[in-house]
Please model this.
Amino acid sequence: MTRSPAPAPRLAILVKGWPRLSETFIAQELVALERAGIDFAIWSLRHPTDAKTHPLHDQLNAEVLYLPEYLHQEPLRVLRGIGAALLRPGFWPAAAQFVRDFKRDRNRNRVRRFGQACVMARELPPETEALYAHFLHTPSSVARYAAMLRGVPWSFSAHAKDIWTSPDWELKEKLSPDTAGAAFGATCTAFGADHLNALSGGTVVDLIYHGLDLTRFPEPPARAMRAPTDPFRMVSVGRLVEKKGFDRLIDALALLPAHVDWHWTHIGGGALGNTMRARAEARGIHDRITWRGACDQPEVIAAMRASDLFVLPSRIAEDGDRDGLPNVLMEAASQLLPILSTPVSAIPEFIDTGVHGVLSADDPATLAQNMQDLAEHPDKGAAMADAALARLRAEFQMQPGIDQLAQRLNDVMQAPRAE
Model:
C-alpha cells in the first residue's frame, strides 16, 4: 500500500539563521508551537555558524530550508526566482515597495532582501497560507516582499535590536495595512509593545512574554547559606557586545576591596572578546576571571548552579541597541541564583529592585558597591532569589504565551485569502 505524501506546511517561518545558540528563545517557541499542532517549515536567511547547538534544536521536526545567503553565491536560483516573480500579479507592487525602501536606505542588504524574497516566493509550496518572521528588521522585510508576491498575509515577532535600531519610517510602514504591513505582531516586552503600538497604523502588536518552559530545567539546588568570608562566585551569560555592559563590569570588578574573595566566570562569544580580555589584563584581574566562550544549555545551567550571583549590566549602546528581557535572567531565577542587573528596557518588568534582585546604575563604582553588598550579606541575595523564583513560576512561564501566539497564527491562516 502506497502512502500519500504528507501535506505541505501551511505556515512558513523566517529566521535570521538556524540553528543559533544565542537565540534559544526562538527554538523554545518553535518547539512549543509544533507541539501545539502548528505545522510549519523554517526558512533561514543564513547558514549556521555556531559550533554548538541547544538540545531544543534536536527536538524540532520541521523542515529547514536555506535561502541564498548572498545572491551571487546562487545566481541561477536567484534568476529563477526573479523570473517567476515577474509573472506574479504581486510583482509590481512588491518591486515598487522595494524601490521606495531602497531610496531611503541605499545598501546591498536591501537588494539581498528582495532577491531572497523572490526565491522564497517561487519555492514556497502552493499550500502556504501565511508567513511569520522572527525579528522586525531583515527577516520581516523578506517576509513582507514574499507575502506581497504570493498574496498571503505575514506577521512578526519583534525582540530588541530590531525595534530600537530600525528607522521609524520602516517600522510605521510594516505596522500599517495600507503599506502591506503585518496582519499582527508580537513582542516579548511591554516596553517594546508600547513603542510599536504608538507607531502603528493599524497592526496590533501583542505583548507575549517568551517565558520559560520550566520542564526543561532541573529543580533549583538546595543552596546552603554562604558565609561572607567564603569565595564569592559570580557568573554572567551574554555575548561580548556593547549593550551587555561587560566593559563596565570589568572595571567594577577591579574596584572590589581586597577582603572580598571573588571569581567571575563569563559565558558567551562576541566580537569584543579580545578587547575585554585585554581590559581585564590591564586592570590586573585576569587571573580571577574564567572565559568559557559559547556554551550549550546544560553547561550554562551547571555554571549557574555553582555560582553565588548572576550579573548582567545591560545598557543602551551607541546605535540604540539594547536588551529586551533577557531569558538568562529567568534562567538564573529558575536556579535560585540571586541577580544583579540594570533597569534597562524591560528588565524591570521581571525584577523589582530590592525584591526579586538588584537593579543598579551601570557605572563601575555603583556596580562594585552592589556586588560587595551582596557578597557581604548573602541573606539578602537568598531572599530575593526566592522571590524571583516565585514570580517566574506565577507570571513568566511559557505556555500562556504559546497558546496566545498559536491562536493568532491559526486565525491568520484561516482568514479568507484575496483572489
Q: What stands out?
A: The chain has a mean pLDDT of 94.
